[in-house]
Write a sequence for this structure.
């Protein structure tokens, strides 16, 4: 009879979803952990399908297809709560975090490495503005043809929370969920030691710039490296200003925030980056543990990191995959 | 700055708490919003009567083929409807009465003709769920050429103490109409009815992360024609109709333990059941199952069951004199006997499909010559989709 004191095995499931490399790591009896991990992957895929811009049967496409037709679209309770959340994001970011600004991707093609023309941007900016969206739960209406909602700015973080909740509800106490760097730690390793979460290096793919010990809760990271292009020596990143349609030049190359929920953490990283050209100190006033990497790759913030600045300046050690790398 | 800081965090946290998973982390067993289709085909075969215990007739007993189709569909986010159809085809001979042999031993006399029958049963369950309670309304109808039954049920559960305690309850009733075939030529009763009403209450407690305990008490009352129209009793040289009291009260008590063992990755299901009725039948059942996960989504489940019951007060294998109360029954199911059964079930789950195969052997032992031995083989298929 195997001893009950034996450390339960670690089950890992790696998969690609929501445009990212994802991973679920769960401790528990093999069959249980495997079944729960399968349900976790299923949940991620279901939310991806529900909010994908690329699927004509998604909630997002249904809302966007009705833009300018005068028709209001009735949404389910989950989508209603996500739309209420979008309204809060808009208010709390002073209009910078706007889920109607996704339409700008039609002008900003980061793969082509070509800047959009004035005309292209001028044509899209009038379609942006959460304030124009008629949202009265459970009905949402986009008044102008061509307007679009895009849940991509926070649905991955929300999904990480959902998956962690699902695992906890199934009895998993030790494990972590990592959706492309949006991480929700269910609980520490069985011996109580925290997970060492690798933070993506903003200039070196597949390298970590710091390691953050996290026993439970969530950490999210955003940066100017996620989608960008360099034209005539200037770096243009995916962070776009909703009223000008122009790429922002954030004060930080990367921002990480720790919070109880990944959705909250991710909201703070995005708002911090969007506000940083005007108000680089905003994040330090929010009372949440955070880590910033500035454009000179200096670390700042209130988080204890597992890598000292002097150490990482010399060698960018890759993340320890067994301990939950960001990607 | 403190005001601004708390306001953003509070505002986002409040909006996040309105999201479904954040506010409802643990639902016990909510409708999963999936359609599931299940099919089970079983073959039940009773062993023939031993030659030295057969008085007259065919030693071959019942063979029953059962097809069971079940379909569950979500109706709204918190309700679901389950419908099922069961179709049985039976053939073989059945025990008729017991006669004394030359040395006074009991010999089973079987029905002469091979019986061939079909039975169809329809069932509907409507389940409604909310975070702390659920209710299910059930209806059923069963029909065969000489028997019809209609049933209604209501059951529910309250989840208390952060879902660690579940209080369950239920009540159901059925109305049966019995109209035996060939009644005139075989001296059988005609146009009989039977009513049944039952209620139960149970408590389930999550004792530890891996232990579940539950206890259930049930009570039932039967009223009407409770005899078997196709059986007779041997009384002082001739046979009379099987005739039992027109009323029965039953009490049953179930205790169960579910214990998961992380080391071997398996679970023990232990159940004890006590049953008593006012015909003086008392029974005890002990059932032990071990659910072993084998990896790759295979599961093997061996089950052992031991059963023991005392005889009904008026039961005799045959009667040498008449009884003043007029009750006669030589049905082996009312005799003093014990039974052992063993089952082995193998199941495999694919992502949306489930297949299981099981085999059971049951053997009863006691004084009655017609006690059962049977084999049951079942193949189950399940499919879930959205």
């Amino acid at each position: 009879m195997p001893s009950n004191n034996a450390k339960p095995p670690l089950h890992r499931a790696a998969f690609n979803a929501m445009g990212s490399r994802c991973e679920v790591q769960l401790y528990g009896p093999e069959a249980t952990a495997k079944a729960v991990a399968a349900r976790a992957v299923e949940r991620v895929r279901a939310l991806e399908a529900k909010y994908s811009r690329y699927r004509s049967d998604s909630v997002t496409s249904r809302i966007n297809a009705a833009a300018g037709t005068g028709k209001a679209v009735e949404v389910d309770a989950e989508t209603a709560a996500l739309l209420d959340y979008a309204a809060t994001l808009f208010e709390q970011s002073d209009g910078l975090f706007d889920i109607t600004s996704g339409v700008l991707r039609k002008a900003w093609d980061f793969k082509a490495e070509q800047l959009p023309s004035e005309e292209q941007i001028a044509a899209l900016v009038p379609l942006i503005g959460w304030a124009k969206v008629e949202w009265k739960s459970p009905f949402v209406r986009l008044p102008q043809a061509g307007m679009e909602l895009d849940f991509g700015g926070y649905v991955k973080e929300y999904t990480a929370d959902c998956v962690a909740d699902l695992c906890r509800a199934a009895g998993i106490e030790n494990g972590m969920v990592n959706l492309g760097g949006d991480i929700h730690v269910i609980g520490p390793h069985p011996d109580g030691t925290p997970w060492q979460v690798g933070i993506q290096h903003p200039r070196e793919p597949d390298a970590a710039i710091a390691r953050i010990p996290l026993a439970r809760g969530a950490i999210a990271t955003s940066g100017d490296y996620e989608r960008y292009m360099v034209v005539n020596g200037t770096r243009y990143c995916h962070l776009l200003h909703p009223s000008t349609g122009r790429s922002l030049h954030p004060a930080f190359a990367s921002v990480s925030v720790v919070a109880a929920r990944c959705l909250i953490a991710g909201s703070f990283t995005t708002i911090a980056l969007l506000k940083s050209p005007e108000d680089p100190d905003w994040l330090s006033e929010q009372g949440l543990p955070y880590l910033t990497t500035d454009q000179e790759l200096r670390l700042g913030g209130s988080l204890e990191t597992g890598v000292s600045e002097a150490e990482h300046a010399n060698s960018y050690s890759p993340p320890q995959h067994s301990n939950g790398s960001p990607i | 700055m403190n005001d601004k800081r708390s306001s953003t965090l509070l505002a986002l946290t409040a909006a996040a708490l309105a999201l479904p998973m954040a506010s409802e982390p643990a639902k016990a067993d909510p409708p999963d919003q999936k359609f599931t289709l299940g099919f089970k085909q079983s073959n039940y075969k009773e062993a023939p009567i031993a030659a030295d215990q057969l008085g007259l007739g065919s030693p071959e007993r019942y063979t029953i083929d059962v097809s069971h189709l079940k379909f569950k569909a979500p109706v709204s986010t918190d309700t679901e409807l389950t419908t099922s159809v069961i179709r049985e085809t039976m053939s073989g001979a059945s025990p008729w009465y017991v006669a004394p042999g030359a040395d006074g031993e009991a010999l089973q006399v079987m029905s002469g003709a091979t019986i061939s029958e079909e039975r169809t049963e329809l069932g509907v369950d409507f389940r409604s769920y909310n975070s702390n309670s659920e209710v299910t309304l059930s209806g059923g109808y069963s029909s065969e050429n000489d028997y019809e039954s209609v049933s209604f049920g209501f059951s529910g559960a309250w989840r208390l103490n952060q879902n660690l305690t579940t209080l369950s309850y239920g009540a159901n009733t059925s109305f049966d109409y019995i109209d035996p075939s060939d009644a005139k030529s075989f001296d059988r009763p005609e146009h009989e009815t039977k009513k049944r009403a039952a209620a139960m209450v149970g408590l389930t407690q999550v004792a530890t992360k891996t232990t579940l305990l539950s206890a259930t008490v049930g009570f039932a009352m039967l009223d009407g024609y409770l005899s078997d129209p196709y059986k007779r009793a041997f009384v002082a040289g001739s046979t009379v109709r099987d005739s039992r009291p027109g009323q029965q009260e039953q009490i049953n008590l179930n205790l169960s333990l579910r214990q998961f063992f992380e080391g071997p990755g398996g679970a023990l299901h232990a159940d004890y059941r006590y049953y008593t009725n006012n015909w003086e039948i008392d029974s005890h059942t002990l059932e032990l199952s071990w659910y072993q996960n084998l990896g790759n989504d295979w599961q093997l489940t061996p089950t052992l069951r031991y059963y023991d019951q005392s005889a009904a007060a008026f039961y005799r294998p045959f009667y040498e004199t008449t009884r003043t109360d007029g009750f006669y029954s030589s049905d082996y199911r009312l005799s003093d006997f014990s039974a052992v059964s063993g089952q082995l079930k193998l199941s495999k789950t694919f992502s949306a499909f489930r297949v299981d195969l099981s085999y059971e052997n049951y053997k009863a032992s006691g004084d009655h010559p017609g006690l059962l031995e049977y084999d049951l083989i079942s193949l189950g298929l399940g499919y879930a989709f959205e």
